[in-house]
Design a protein that fits this description.
Pfam families: WD40 (PF00400)
Shape: globular
Largest sheet: 6 strands, antiparallel
Strand content: over 45%
Oligomer: single chain
Number of helices: 1
Strand order of the largest sheet: 2-3-4-5-6-7
Organism: Dillenia turbinata
CATH architecture of the largest domain: 7 Propeller
Helix content: under 10%
Structural class: mainly beta
InterPro entries: WD40/YVTN_repeat-like_dom_sf (IPR015943), WD40_PAC1 (IPR020472), WD40_repeat_CS (IPR019775), WD40_repeat_dom_sf (IPR036322), WD40_rpt (IPR001680), WDR86-like (IPR044715)
Protein name: WD40 repeat
Number of domains: 2
Mean pLDDT: 84
Keywords: Repeat, WD repeat
Radius of gyration: 19 Å
Length: about 290
């Protein structure tokens, strides 16, 4: 529950809780589907049908999950990307196919322009053809773990603990190359793209100085900062101009863009999807406004 200066008190209710009995490494929702990365497995829930699936094959903790059309991609601790295809006729997940090449754990995944991009603890980003599952380029511009990947407006954004955000674009030969590097004073943990109240593109950048830096694109001019008492490990967009931040203190904060400069926030509690992406809890909580 939180309070706003508008005189409105929003109430968020915990709709469900599941004790999975093991460490949670990642969490993604797509439509009615909820995908939970665990040790050596992925748990899948359909909140409309109450169907559950338990997918095994990954080695180690599953750090990253993304979904493109009917394919589920997961990045695991052993450096392998596992891909399952959902079959509507049999109502089951088929596979997985294995995409190998990283020498460290895969901690970030994103899909854009029919390509899968993977970031790893080996400091590299690999570019995969979704149709063939073949890696056709390795991007080695970072000198530390690639924490988050974001594909937005035909550009790939990557952030790393090397204190940089890099912007990549396709060249004439269709290979990705760095077109801009933004330097921070601290390591960069997470990225998220948003549109403000005037529909201007904003990049939200979480650093390990316990703050989020807001930059207007494409100029990277600073729009402001959000401060927390702990590292903000997760940023997620919601509907109606809302976005959510989850920090290491166990606090989830809901923010709303205002038409004038500044932001408006309300603290709502200790557990939700945004928090569980980063925290090693065994209980999955789903919150509804």
């Amino acid at each position: 529950m939180g309070c706003y200066s508008l005189g409105i008190i929003p109430v968020w209710l915990c709709a469900d809780a599941n004790n999975l009995g093991c460490e949670i490494g990642s969490l993604v929702s797509a439509g009615p589907w909820v995908f939970v990365g665990m040790l050596n497995a992925i748990k899948v829930f359909n909140i409309d049908t109450n169907a559950e699936y338990h997918l095994t094959r990954p080695v180690g903790l599953v750090y990253a999950i993304t979904v493109e059309r009917d394919v589920l991609f997961t990045g695991a601790q052993d450096g392998t990307i596992y891909a399952w295809k959902f079959n509507l006729e049999s109502n089951s997940f088929q596979g997985p196919a294995s995409l190998k090449g990283h020498e460290g754990a895969v901690v970030s995944l994103v899909v854009g322009a029919n390509r899968l991009y993977s970031g790893s603890m080996d400091h590299n980003i690999k570019v995969w053809d979704i149709d063939t599952s073949q890696c056709f380029q390795t991007l080695n511009g970072h000198s530390a773990v690639v924490m988050t990947l974001l594909f937005w407006d035909q550009h790939l954004f990557s952030c790393s603990l090397d204190n940089t955000i890099k912007v990549w674009a396709a060249s004439e030969d269709h290979n990705m190359e760095v077109i801009y590097t933004h330097n921070e004073e601290d390591g960069v943990l997470a990225l998220c793209g948003a549109l403000d109240a005037e529909a201007k593109p904003i990049l939200l950048c979480s650093c390990n100085d316990n703050s989020i830096h807001l930059y207007e694109l494409p100029s990277f001019s600073q729009r402001g900062r959000i401060y927390a008492t702990q590292e903000i490990r997760s940023i997620h967009m919601g509907s109606g101009g809302l976005f959510f931040t989850g920090d290491e203190a166990g606090l989830v904060t809901v923010w709303k863009w205002m038409s004038e400069s500044g932001s408006q926030k309300g603290n709502i509690g200790h557990f939700c999807i945004a928090l569980l992406v980063q925290f090693h809890e065994q209980i999955l909580h789903i919150w509804l406004p």
